[in-house]
Amino acid sequence: MIFLSPNSGLLxxxxxxxxxxxxxFLKLRRKPLRISSTILWEQAVQDLQVNVPFRWLRVSxxxxxQLMALAALAAALGRPAIEGVATSADxxxxxxxxxxxxxxxxxxxxxxxGDAEAEATSRPTRLDRAKRRAIELVGQLQRTTTVAGTxxxxxxxxxxxxxxxxxxxTSIESDLVDAINTVQPTDQPGGIDxxxxxxxxxxxxxxxxSTPGAxxxxxxxxxxxxxxxxxxxxxNRIVDVTDAGIARDNVGIVAMSVRRDVEQPETIxxxxxxxxxxEAAVTTTVRCLFDGAVVGARSVSIPGAGARGDKQGGEAVxxxxxxxxxxxxxxxxxxxxxxxxxDNAAGAFIGPATTPAVLVVAPAASQGxxxxxxxxxxxxxxxxxxLRVVDLSGYESEAADARSEGRPxxxxxxxxxxxxxxxxxxxxxxxxxxxFGAGLPIAGLALVPPDSSLPVRALRFDTWxxxxxxxxxxxxxxxxxxxxxxxxxxxxxxxxxxxxxxxRVLAAGSSGPLIAALEEPNNPPRRVVVSFALSRSNWPPDTxxxxxxxxxxxxxxxxxxxxxxxxxxxxxxVVVHPAAGAGVVSIDGPATDEIAVPxxxxxxxxRASPDPLNLGVLARAGVYRLSGAEEGAVCVxxxxxxxxxxxxxxxxxxxxxxxxxxxxxxxxLLDKSRREGxxxxxxxxxxxxxVAAVIEWFLFxxxxxx
Length: 706
What we know:
By secondary structure, the protein is α/β, with parallel strands linked by helices. It contains 14 helices and 36 strands.
């Protein structure tokens, strides 16, 4: 115990104690009287002897109690304090990092006894250690009070890629312990950043809205393994739950790519970048699986972090090539037991090696339909699964028959091209479409005839969206159109007509929009309209036409999406397309769930292509099987170098106030910068003085009555 203001205590004792003793030394002045006998005055004689000056005091219990009371009050003036938990804040926020690296097992890793895989489940993780330390802190908080004399409330926050409040502020120990035990491990990247940013924002908002003089201070104790984090005066303590005596031993996949070959779509190439967190080089085996079956294996050597000057961990690249035409899931897996399991595998869904089936609707001719020769030449170069040309009457007839029979029209085709023809509103295809020299009976995509009063002249493109996916690598500077073509009514339609907000102008001339696309929310383009006929321009022979058509076919038919492996990360929401008529999408994998399909989405899917459904973030890595969705399965991966390196790059200084998990208890975990970690106990001394005074009063009253 120490005294924070010892001079005040000494001054109080120097004044009060001599005064008390002086009272006992003073001689009482009584008037002398003559009496007949002293038998009844024996007590008076004793009192007289006591009040004789400069005689030794007679020790009594009353005097001892008075001295104790004055000593306690003098000690209280000296502000006595003890080492331990002491906080002036009413609330303590306990942040628990449950990101992927917190699932690393290291407490028993160095023992190396027995089968590593068999012992994996028995080794405690960093998260286990963090939860145990948090529960110890809660127990310490139950034995302390604030300066106001109340028990501090605690709040539990779990943090990874995002932060969530597990338990609101309460001082009930059982509720806090139960909340800590409910924090589950995730495979998400991140750490305490999300929680700290949230608390800082809340603190700033509270400071602005609080009354002048009100205290908004709070203690923040974060249990994490993440390096770095300067939290700008939040008054926090960062508790490092890693074991400093255990060397890092982890290998994981930090990047992955899967795609089909452009010229040979049946060929699939898979690449992975693998990082090593340890200082020594590691040689391991990486397997490639297609729909669960092993199709290849490679031995790969990964340099250790000690071999690199930047201390970011060693890296190596591995690749596989396989031949599959069907759709499936490609998984690359590191065949090695180490500290972290969630980064040992990564997967992606690859679509089938298909080519589009294209229907061309062209003006009628004496023998069939008259399609543009340049357009047909390009479509034939794609090697489509089927390419058919019909005139407008044949197209409308089939569409009418399909409507009467309740079936989709032209279901064998996944792209319709209208060459100088415009379908009726009822016959607009369900499939994506491209129109040349004609519009569509959709708001914002109808053509506006050119002004006949203007002289006939050629027209050039003035502007186009070079960054748009449809116009990627498309150069329109040399393109001429003669005579000036009709324009697309996108500008007039954007004033409020239904559907106009989804029309995006891709290219325009001096007279108005010449190329436009119709998009639906969260979907790629569905309709593309080019206002001029190809035969009225020099665009078809130019290379930019082939580039534009390749972009359009890939985006509209999804051919580009099918050629690239699709996966999600544990920090991003998973988006799928519900199957027609499905009311629920069921998820089965590392986690199970059921997501209801909204009624409006079910209605939209019944009359058009499926709209996307957001399944939310899936926090555990792995392959998830879906029912009620067109995808059938999705892959969710960690793919984060910081988590694979188990808390951050090696050799980086930590700009945070770190407290080891093996510290001196909860007293070392709360903020000591404001209060030096000392708990004042002066109120206990005041209470002791009051108790001594009360006992002294009872003894004095008893002697008086006697």
